[in-house]
Amino acid sequence: MKTIYEPKGTKWGTVSLKIANVKSIFIFTISLFVYVSTSFAQDLPQEMWHPGYVVLDSEDTLQGKIQYDFESNLLQFTSDERVKTFTSQNILFFSFHCQFFKRVRSVYSIPFDLKGTVKAPIFFEILEEGKITLMTREYVIIENNNRFGNPMYRTRGFGSREILTYDYFLLTDDGTIHRFSEKRKDLYPFFGRFEQQMIDYIKERRLKVDKQGDLVTIMKYYNGLVSSR
Asked: pTM for the complete prediction?
């Protein structure tokens, strides 16, 4: 299942307008379309350059600006106007200050059989680390309808949009990576003897396991429970 990331704390406002006649409505509609088309044509995170550093498999560290791509598992790096390209097999770890989300993000290359064939190092972003480590992979999908007002969407003209979305994975302490279906019933068994306590916590706070912010909160709480016992 693919989940659209929704920034925590985002508030949607509504504008109340009194339109005097049909002509005014038409002008407003056209103006709104032009505004939205230009406003949300911004670069998505994987298209931007971010300040950060890269640790190669040789353990050399490079500091400069990076551009990443989870789908192709490639990273571009520059520090002196020359651009170098590395695959996930050349990289142990990279960290950067994301210019889109305005926060630090950390990504590791971890062996995984993504397509059900042979295990190979691919990029995983670490969202919460502990007894169970929450990881994600980011990518873009294209849908054939429009939804304005969300920074995770970029319109591509009439009738289509690009959506920034995520797949989630749980790394357990035995070293196994599990794809997470984003369903509560599939998450609860991971909590072991804390399962009922976690069920109550999630329900009381009305947390949703298919929202990134809520999922991070859930896993942080669980890891805190484990470490305190």
From this structure: 0.77
